[in-house]
Amino acid sequence: MTVCGYPIARTSTIASPLKLHRPSINCRNQFYVRASASNTSSSDGEETKLMIKREEDGGWKIDFSGEKKPATPLLDTINYPAHMKNLSTQDLEQLAAELRADIVYTVSKIGGHLSSSLGVVELSVALHHVFNTPEDKIIWDVGHQAYPHKILTGRRSRMHTIRQTSGLAGFPKRDESVHDAFGAGHSSTSISAGLGMAVGRDLLGKSNHVISVIGDGAMTAGQAYEALNNSGYLDTNLIVVLNDNKQVSLPTATLDGPATPVGALSSALAKLQASTKFRKLREAAKQCLEAAEMLKSRDIAMTVADARFCKPLDTDLIRRLAKEHEFLITVEEGSIGGFGSHVSQFLGLNGLLDGNLKWRAMVLPDRYIDHGAPKDQMEEAGLTSKHISATVLSLLGKPKEAMQFK
């Protein structure tokens, strides 16, 4: 097993750490590209602006203040990793600068994972310059740092659809591209997956490379250390890149001192989730409120109670709702076995289901729902205001009216 830990800064020379260990690469249609940054329009006709220039100290200055699409003349010539194999170190630095500007522009328009992707721009360029995907396997951990990888592997023209219905996934996805070796979002699974691929490669007598890129945050999980232990025992050829770029979602402990306590973070998040403004943003709560308005037009009174959390149950609230209402419906953006199950157990143990109370649970279906816009996912899951209204009407014995909402 080979373990490589090269933290790569945004303005560092990206080729030098990996170039010393560059494996032999068989690449078709290699060519050399030089590009000028004087373009004023993109390939799709959209007006562009010069936002990237080289500083006297050798670094790259990127202006993110403009609304126009940045000029990316070198990146415009890169459709797949094969197109960047013969680029010089200077060209690779320019490519990384243009790639960063392109990601910032795209995410500013549609939203998405920004800092995690910016933290691996140079690393993504270096890996695709050195290795030869899809023959070589690159596994990203966590998956939401794969935006640069997606752009460099033929998906740049579709980046505006990322995390949208029928668009690109926010994570690596195997049926989206042959360059995505492993499909996962969170977290700490890359070394285990890479080890399995490396062992399978050896059994088949192949010699391709397997590279697991794991961040310092993902590295804190026990599964990653267990995988390292197994990798050392099996002694197969596996490359692990520890990407300590200080772009993790949560701070971790360092040799220089302790990180921010998890307890304090947990307390802050709990207060945020309990706030009135945040509860108004939650999708399930919004659907319930919309359903209440829809039923109000039919002279049906509906009480919406936001339980806020699964445990501990607000037993006084549930008992009062059960005694004062004919029907009780729990709605949650979770699977079977969550909040609704706890409520039903409480109702059953306390005899509240022995009378006239009718209880129904609305949860996520026990099947895979593909990525997409939240409203489309809620529709497919059957958790929209129309579905809630239909459930209420069915309990009231009005199946024909309920069908109007389905």
UniProtKB/TrEMBL annotation:
From the record, give the transmembrane residue ranges: none
Enumerate the Pfam families for this protein.
DXP_synthase_N
CDD domains for this protein: TPP_DXS
UniProt cofactor(s): Mg(2+)
InterPro entries linked: Dxylulose-5-P_synthase, THDP-binding, Transketo_C/PFOR_II
A single MF term (Gene Ontology)? metal ion binding
Which ranges form a coiled coil? Answer: none
A GO biological process this protein is involved in? thiamine biosynthetic process
Q: Please give the SUPFAM superfamilies that the UniProt record associates with this protein.
A: Thiamin diphosphate-binding fold (THDP-binding) (SSF52518), TK C-terminal domain-like (SSF52922)
Q: Indicate the quaternary assembly.
A: Homodimer.
User: Which PANTHER family does its entry note?
Assistant: 1-D-DEOXYXYLULOSE 5-PHOSPHATE SYNTHASE-RELATED, 1-DEOXY-D-XYLULOSE-5-PHOSPHATE SYNTHASE 2, CHLOROPLASTIC-RELATED
What is the official name of this protein in its record? 1-deoxy-D-xylulose-5-phosphate synthase
Query: Per the UniProt entry, what species is this protein from, by scientific name?
Result: Kingdonia uniflora
